[in-house]
Amino acid sequence: MRAHTVADATVNKVVLAYSGGLDTSVIVPWLRETYGCTVICYCADLGQGEELAGLRDKALASGAADCVIEDLRETFARDYLFPMLQSGAVYEHQYLLGTSIARPLIAARQVALAEAVGADAVAHGCTGKGNDQVRFELTFKALNPRLRVIAPWREWHIRSREDALAYADAHGVPIAQRERSIYSRDRNLWHLSHEGGGLEDPARPPDPAMFLWTADPAEAPGTPEIVEIAFDAGTPVSVNDVRLSPAMLIDTLNAIGARHGVGRIDLVENRLVGMKSRGVYETPGGTLLYAAHRELESLCLDRDTAHAKAGLALRYAELVYFGQWFHPLRAALQAFVDQTQATVTGWVRLKLHKGLVTVDGRDSPNSLYREDFATFGADDVYDQRDAAGFINLFGLPMKVQAMLGVSDGGLVRYAAPDYSRFKRD
Predict the structure, then answer these.
(1) Edge-to-edge, what's the strand order for the sheet holding 264-270?
(2) Both 290 and 193 in a single domain?
(3) In a domain? residue 309
(4) Which of these ranges, 70-74, 194-198, 274-278, 405-409, has the smallest mean pLDDT?
(5) Of these four, 61, 76, 409, 425, which has the most CB atoms within 10 Å of its CB?
(6) Domain boundary at 180, 210, 234, which?
(7) What is d(CA 228, CA 93) in angstroms, rounded to the nearest whole number?
(8) C-alpha to C-alpha distance for 270 and 422, rounded to whole angstroms
(9) β-strand partners of 150
(10) How many domains is the chain partitioned into structurally?
(11) Are residue 154 and residue 270 in the same domain, yes or no?
């Protein structure tokens, strides 16, 4: 254990991001013993479900002075998931950012609680080689850089699960589940992630028993199901004509998508800290929302805006993955995204069948796709004779390049086929 420093004496009260797992449970007595401070645990309910059962009692039994559990499911859906959905952000072509997008909200509320109770420090249980430590601490820096940040995994002597269990036993910390899960998991309203175990070998397929949420596509219902999702200015508002709150809408789509085996991805991703990792994710409702929103935008956004937005979505995804939700660039990109969503109103029908999602129809009062334009007179919309001038100007750079070849004694600058066997008439 490291020696105390003068700075340690300034830590009187700390707010700990608390999950109730082994690591954060032993952090409670470790903080008290190492810093001599009061510990207040904070847990955000983002849809973990049964994982929250008995959490407050466990925190108090571990030595916490208090444990605040805040239901943030609607806030999570409305203020974090839906803006990200509207941006089209997907990290490295597949990951819908379920863990990444949750951390800034937890950390922001942790800061707010620290300010409310007069704490001078915040703490988290993230390891020193993962992404989450960055996401928590960048949020702390953005919202209150005066708070001291304590990251026990970068300080303490505990190096294994066995060390942590021994520490828990020595300090009377209740640990109900002592058998280690093969996988490291994170669950919230948006997704369920799996890492570790056999997944550490990217050549091995996932064990079918690993999946806890989505049905095996091969065993999903044989009859396709149609689901209709309606949007108002880019925000999902109803499923099958039933208006729902943001969190309830995602919950409803999770149930529908999961029973059809929708939303499984297997990804080797580039972590922010520089190493690669493999994760398997289940995101049933999010997969349906991304598919529907993308299709509605195809009707409502003009070409240039749609293409620019697709490019910016890559940067937006990086900002979320890198923990930069409160970065000025993310706010600026969000302003652009919000502007693009003004006309994204309408509905999309999706067909779900054995893990697949296909579009079964889409409509919008703001659609830029107008079949009736084709029947208008030439002067109304489109005069085909104008195409010649357009092509001449659009192709001018290519024509100039070809003319340079002619002046150099050639005609073309590619490997032309040999047509010598053909005779001229």
Answers:
(1) 184-187, 192-195, 276-282, 264-270
(2) yes
(3) no
(4) 405-409
(5) 76
(6) 180
(7) 25
(8) 55
(9) 123
(10) 3
(11) no
Residue 145: CATH number of its domain: 3.40.50.620
Residues 184-199: tens digit of each pLDDT? 899 999 999 999 999 9
Q: pLDDT for 151-197, tens place per residue? A: 999 999 898 888 988 999 999 898 866 666 788 899 999 999 999 99
Q: Kind of pairing, strands 242-243 and 235-239?
A: antiparallel
Angle at 106 between CA 282 and CA 246, to 5 degrees: 60
**Token pair recorded at residue 164:** 């942590």
Query: Same structural domain for residues 113 and 150?
Result: yes
DSSP letter at 347?
Answer: E
Is residue 89 situated within a structural domain? Answer: no
Give one DSSP letter per residue of 161-214, joined into a string: HHHHHHHHHHTT---S--SPPSSEEEE-SS-EEEESGGGGSTTSPPPGGG-SSS
**Same domain, residue pair 220 and 164:** no
Any domain includes 84 = no
Helix (H, G, I), strand (E, B) or coil at 39: strand
What is the overall mean pLDDT for the chain?
Answer: 92
Q: Band of the pLDDT at 2, cuts 50, 70, 90?
A: very low
Backbone angles phi, psi at 266, to 5 degrees: -125, 115
Residue with tokens 């996932």, as numbered in its chain: 206
**Are 210 and 131 part of one and the same domain?**
no
- Cα separation of 394 and 400, whole Å? 12
Q: What is the DSSP letter of 3?
A: P
Look at residues 127, 124, 170 and name the one whose alpha carbon lies nearest to residue 27: 124
170 and 265 inside one domain: no
Q: What is the pLDDT of residue 161?
A: 81
Bridge partners of 346, per DSSP, are 231
Domain membership flag for residue 172: yes
Q: How many CB atoms lie within 10 A of CB 346?
A: 20
- The residue written with tokens 């203020």 in the block is 79
Please say whether the beta carbons of 142 and 104 come within 8 A: no
Encode pLDDT of 196-229 as tens digits: 999 999 999 999 999 999 999 999 999 999 999 9
**Residue range 356-378, pLDDT digits in tens:** 999 999 999 999 998 776 565 55
Is the same domain home to 201 and 150?
Answer: no
How far is it, in rounded angstroms, from Cα 412 to Cα 401? 9
Task: List active site positions.
Answer: 23, 103, 132, 184
Query: Does residue 239 sit in the same domain as residue 274?
Result: yes
Give Cβ neighbours of residue 273 (< 8 Å, ≥ 6 apart): 129, 130, 131, 134
Q: What range defines the domain where residue 197 resides?
A: 185-301+344-369
